[in-house]
């Protein structure tokens, strides 16, 4: 690492009946790490441990190059935002921010710190200085909370589902604002959520968590494209996960039997063998529809099949098209394409799937999680 | 919007109205029975004035003690998880269920002349709980402290612990978080609890009369007037006490709930 690192190294923790097992995470300056997982996975406990509210039984926490494992929360320099942004409801915007400015200093009771005005201006909340949090819009709350956290010059930002109480539209706006802010300051950030849209929009790196352990961690694009197991696949929203069987190999392609149809898949990470049961994972946007007019011709290297449209749903820019043939498939198209191709229930359509767009997962039986880390214990 | 369930609301008001009438009518009759002149005459009596002042003073002291030792207990009950938490909560509620004569007698075993603490305090601290305001405070505290603890606990429980965590992360130590964030946010619950404590302390009769007959608090004095001179004399002083406590309660409520304004601090 060239710059000061922020990392969680082998942290384990026991908290009542719950435990965190061997958590390893790294965030570089300018990066956003999203921890995605279902409720009760241990995401919040992980954040609280990083912030210093639980003492790990093993492992080390490094923030901005400093080992903070033994420091109390007030000396870790971590900006924490949670649902509704955690503004102090009895204090005005200015008073909230001044508390951040006084971090670690003696509480000189001056409401108008000289550093306050520039902060208010930077976040465009100068006119709100004397308002109480209850009178702010979600965006203004987020900016106030960011200003307050930034005031104490944090080495790390952490977010615990800050948008979970918001409507979809504010959520999207605030996500973009937040992303721009983090890009600009280059302060590393950890963002906890169970919403894959948050993850898709924000994550540079992604960690999937379940039952107190990291199931898979890596660059976000990798996880979205090539989840390591069924749990991750379902969690990053792989739309099509079809059971199949490996028939054999032809060059760099795997030949897979799915519902009696042959599909070719190119997945260099897959290390299966003939007759192995697999899951064929295809993202909805990688299912290409050609309409009914085109005959099956051309490139034999792609998967091409005829399927019947059984449903079209969605009202916004995108349509979800449900298809049926030897197996069921979901495709995502723009509204325009859907209309142009005349996709309506009952019509047939040509479906193309690039072998490169297919990701293969070993079917390890039911929902058992196959750990990406060989040393991690299996789920109890 | 669904139409209001009229039948249910109507029945609720009819039944609840009986209770409201039941509370208001006796008090209104009591106040109505007194002319301004007779009230002035009662208020002019030094023994009556002394008793009322003693009640107000002792109740204030009891409330202060309840604040100092009851509010911390409320905080602990609201924030800490420990085995036996339910039992501790139940112990706090005991004085609400025990007849107050029983409370008074139990207190005699500890604070009486031969009580385990009373004797010690008399000998070594020159502090007596019989015939003194200290005894009155003790009796009042015993019966009224649960109100302080329970209401303050609700107040603390309503403060999102995550706010305290955020406060820690922006650089405040645990004590500063308590003073700057937790107490101001729980203030309403605490104030409600202390108001109830004060009101309950003023009104206490049985425990006080068993532990300390003299000097007389207002309720004891009213009882004495009732026994010696009959209803009319007692009603005069009762009206006076009622008026004073009502004014105080309204004042407290105003202080606790009236100012819903910003406390951006330092201004």
TrEMBL record, chain A:
All residue ranges annotated as the ABC transporter domain in the record: 2-236
Query: What InterPro entries does the entry give?
Result: AAA+_ATPase, ABC_SmlMolc_Importer, ABC_transporter-like_ATP-bd, Mo/tungstate-bd_C_term_dom, P-loop_NTPase, Transp-assoc_OB_typ1
What top-level branch of life does the organism fall under?
A: Bacteria
Question: In the record, which residues are listed under signal peptide?
Answer: none
Give the molecular function GO annotations.
ATP binding
* Keyword Transmembrane tagged: no
State the UniProt keywords alphabetically: ATP-binding, Nucleotide-binding, Transport
Q: Under which name does UniProt file this protein? A: ABC transporter ATP-binding protein
Species, as recorded? Acidiphilium iwatense
UniProtKB/TrEMBL annotation, chain B:
Q: How does it sit in the membrane?
A: Multi-pass membrane protein
Q: Which UniProt keywords apply?
A: Cell membrane, Membrane, Transmembrane, Transmembrane helix, Transport
- Kindly give the InterPro entries that the UniProt entry links to this protein: MetI-like, MetI-like_sf
- Supply the CDD domains for this chain: TM_PBP2
One Pfam match, given by its short name, reads BPD_transp_1
Q: Which domain of life is it from?
A: Bacteria
Q: ABC transmembrane type-1 domain location, by residue?
A: 52-252
Q: What is its main location?
A: membrane
Q: Please state where this protein is localized.
A: Cell membrane
Q: Where are the transmembrane segments?
A: 12-31, 52-75, 87-109, 129-149, 169-187, 194-214, 234-257
Transport found in the keyword field:
yes
Keyword Ligase in the entry? The reply is: no
Give the record's family classification: Belongs to the binding-protein-dependent transport system permease family.
* PANTHER family membership: MOLYBDENUM TRANSPORT SYSTEM PERMEASE PROTEIN MODB
- Name of the protein in its database record: ABC transporter permease
- Lineage of producing organism: Bacteria, Pseudomonadati, Pseudomonadota, Alphaproteobacteria, Acetobacterales
